[in-house]
Amino acid sequence: MRDVAVIGIGCTPFGEKWNSSFRHLFVEAGSLALEDANIAGEQIDSMYVGNMSAGRFVEQEHIGALIADYAGLASHHIPATRVEAACSSGGLAFRQAVISVASGIEDIVVAAGVEKMTDVASGASVDTLAGAADREWEGFVGATFPGLYAMIATAYMDRYPLSREQLAQVAVKNHYNGARNPIAQFRQEITVDTVVNSTLVADPLRLFDCSPITDGAAAVVVAPLERAREFTDTPVRVLATAQASDTITLHDRRDICTLDASVAAGRWAFEMAGLSQKDIDLVEVHDCFAIAEICAIEDLGFCKKGEAGVLTEQGVTALGGDLPVNTSGGLKACGHPVGATGIKQVCELVQQLRGEAGKRQVDGAEIGMAHNVGGTGATVAVHILGV
Amino acid sequence: MRDVAVIGIGCTPFGEKWNSSFRHLFVEAGSLALEDANIAGEQIDSMYVGNMSAGRFVEQEHIGALIADYAGLASHHIPATRVEAACSSGGLAFRQAVISVASGIEDIVVAAGVEKMTDVASGASVDTLAGAADREWEGFVGATFPGLYAMIATAYMDRYPLSREQLAQVAVKNHYNGARNPIAQFRQEITVDTVVNSTLVADPLRLFDCSPITDGAAAVVVAPLERAREFTDTPVRVLATAQASDTITLHDRRDICTLDASVAAGRWAFEMAGLSQKDIDLVEVHDCFAIAEICAIEDLGFCKKGEAGVLTEQGVTALGGDLPVNTSGGLKACGHPVGATGIKQVCELVQQLRGEAGKRQVDGAEIGMAHNVGGTGATVAVHILGV
Prior knowledge:
The structure is a homodimer of 387-residue chains. Chain A has 14 helices and 11 strands. Chain A has 387 residues and is α/β, with parallel strands linked by helices. In chain A, a hairpin with a 2-residue loop joins strand 5 (200-202) and strand 6 (205-206). Chain A is globular and about 55 Å long.
């Protein structure tokens, strides 16, 4: 297997993009990534696109070919493949691109993610997103994602000493970071009071514990490490790619407070990179709900079970802390266009490792991790990048 | 890159399976493939699943994890990835499995395809399938797939000497083959009269020129060639994998009578295998409509443009002819559960190359090709297998 590097990144602003269609969003992100990599579209060998549910959001399947076409690449006939694993679709698209380059089959490969969610009513969005859970055992009886994660939060708070204020601090921190990220959907700082006094969505989760419905796209270009400096002075190496599955329903889990797929993918990634938790300078974790960030920090081995609330309260996971988590603003403040999120996480790591993250820069960042979750943890992708 | 072999295959009967759910179908196919490969589920390193539109057919996304879970593999946490490219989703799943094993990242990988289409009304099916075309430029104005392929047929019959009877012979031949295939949806022989007197669907295409709506699943197991004989005495080598894209809309094509993605993927596959058309003993082509088989035979280079009708009439593409096409019965007689079709084609080749195809066996078959099309040719996957 060959070593692989990221040579270009691009990301649209995330938000309610009523003036941009599905296809415009990804062309914008793809163009930014190609420009960043100093390459023309015809130099691309193939493309992987992460998208959860364009079939239901915009009645369009066959996403890979659509994207290659609207990117102006149809006459080059390059392979274009959509991958889907709900909210981890972007992470899996990145993984497939890395595998393809590592295999030697292709050299210059684009991994992109896109979701256009605001063209349907919010009730339809919530039902479409429930397609990431088990339709027969969860969606059919009315379970939505806020409801499922509320069950995790309830069980967690019953078993471990996580206070309402500690949980709120996750969103407070991520809004602080998002306020410093030009692509974030929400660029306002908030307080613990904002969170604990916001509308109850699914007890104990309130509005500001939940990531929003978002339109957006992100793209990265990967190449063999040995060729990376043909295109960029700042290649970022892919040190590990790992992916794990678990039961699709929450009720079948060994323990709903632990995402075993996060544990497995995290362990495999550390093994592949030959690194451990202390080597990681920053992490982007999948904070679809505040409780998910708490679980992720623990499941990836950065602290013991039950300790992430205290770490968050103490500022360990804040910008300037020992382990900055979600410097991008996370899903909470950046927004969560589900297929794009996993690629946006990679974009954030690359910006940080290049030293180009501006007001949210982690000083001296050399190694970062991205953690992307599908559903309530039935799929998890973990990547480690380094310079 | 490592050489890759198919070590096991499994396919459900295709048809209207009102007593089998989406998840039951793939568990059935997967179990058959594991049994055929003499392996247990826990020996699998990862899984790729081709599926076009479970989101709209059964309101379920996150297909990879769902399948790994219902296959009893959740506790092993193996990666499970859905790939989608409309009707070529299965071919792309096979390609991703081959790339993964070739890269050395994984050893024993399952490629599967599944579609459950009959749980919705036929109008909803037709609209969902239109998601394989461009929703904004084709679906929005009412174009359906019979309509799009009817435009291809009309242009083709205007330009080349293809008679109504020659076109009908495609379905007659495929029903003859399907009558000899235990998994086929339609196992009745038909005549040219049956076709030309059947209901007009979209002029000039009649009911028997069109593949049906079908439920079904298929799975294959691939492994490094060097390990294949640990599992089977009859490994079948993957000699080439190729994939090409084209414009998603028909009106943007250089020539709607030629699928340029078929031309490109076919050429790349022959180059990769170091073979030419004369080396191929049988081909499974994507006959979603009769005209598609005519185009495919020409686009893959087996004859000149405009000659496939005569070849079909003369029996060259029949069982016992010089180039048997769609010995399985093709999409026409086997049925076309869209995500499963590309994998079913591989299953057919493997059965033929092992000499296990019973009444439809091609004597001495050593090299076969599978050709899987998404939409009207915006995605094409071509694979060459050999013993």
